[in-house]
Please model this.
Amino acid sequence: MIAVVLVGGEGTRLRPLTLDEPKPVLPIGGVPFAALMLDRLAAADVSRVILSCGYLPERLRAGIGDPPAGMEVEVVVEDEPLGTAGAIAYAARGRVDGPYLALNGDVLGDADLGALVRAHTERGARATILLTPVDDPTRYGVVVHGPDGAVERFVEKPPTADGLGPAPWWVNAGAYVLDPDVLADVPEGRMTSIEREVFPGLVGDGLFAHRGGGYWRDIGTLESFLAANADAVGGAVATRLGGADGAVLVDPAARVDPAARLTGPVRVCAGAEIAAGAAVGPDAVVGAGARVGEAAEVARAVLLDGARVGARTCVEASAIGRDAVVGDDASLVGCALGTGAAVAAGERLEGERRPG
Ligand code: GTP
Model:
């Protein structure tokens, strides 16, 4: 099986974290997000992955790490953004000759992609959309379908749930199985959306939906990025981290002072240091080589590799970029700092809170 994964977005809602790192290499529980995605594809017997990329391709290539054994990964670079359908078509052209998986590359999930492929084959579908249940449909594309899974209509970001039946609502989860001819007519060299321009034209012509289960979260905002990290460590989503409710995962090569307090879910990565009196967690990840100073408090937060938090500083609901430094006696709530940023001692910053 071949999978095309869309990783070409600039991740504007996650700036400044994404100013020099593409979203797929940002860490989830200390592991590049793309590596978790490749694990999931390997579990669905995918042996070849085409990463459809345009933004910071070299960082992407360097940041994904070694693919799982037996998997080949190719990075295909667009000269300009082509939109979801254009990008999949461009990446798939000349590389696929049978049904293939296509995925948005910013969704953390654990629904069985192998089951999605089987549903596609068993129904003789031309395209099959993975659905996930949500309690609030207003931010998603609701896919209305019959009992046999045949898609009847799409309702993109409905203002209310009126007329959409009872909860939960089943929405496009950003993972598809496509027959090769489905995108054959996508025009070259212009933005085309699979959700808005391709799928509506396939209604009644071989377009099916498959209800998946398990965990699902788009990691595209600060709030959802932090929640995805907490969920990976807390075991809400199945990943290689082996997270569990209240888990305290400390790498053997980390140094945690005996007088520091860790409250799970928390992960402390290799080479990280936690000083005496510091309180880390719940819902915290301290990246490789990051340091938390004496009596500092870090909760619902992610410190990327090499980040430093000063003594008595409080970091809450925030992401501290790679090698960024927060001085002593500072306070950060709801903030994202970019790579190498510096916050002076005693500074108090409160960020805008955006819904996940
Ligand atoms: P924002 O700028 O914060 O909206 O993030 P984004 O740029 O990632 O956009 P969005 O979340 O809508 O994209 C969903 C997925 O599609 C992400 O995995 C993107 O990387 C990917 N994507 C969006 N547009 C393109 C494109 O034109 N080309 C490619 N290759 N991927 C894209």
Remarks:
- Residues 2-214 form a domain with the Spore Coat Polysaccharide Biosynthesis Protein SpsA; Chain A fold (CATH 3.90.550.10).
- Residues 6-13, 23, 52-54, 78, 81-84, 87, 104-106, 220 surround guanosine-5'-triphosphate (CB under 6 Å).
- The first strand starts at residue 2 and ends at 6.
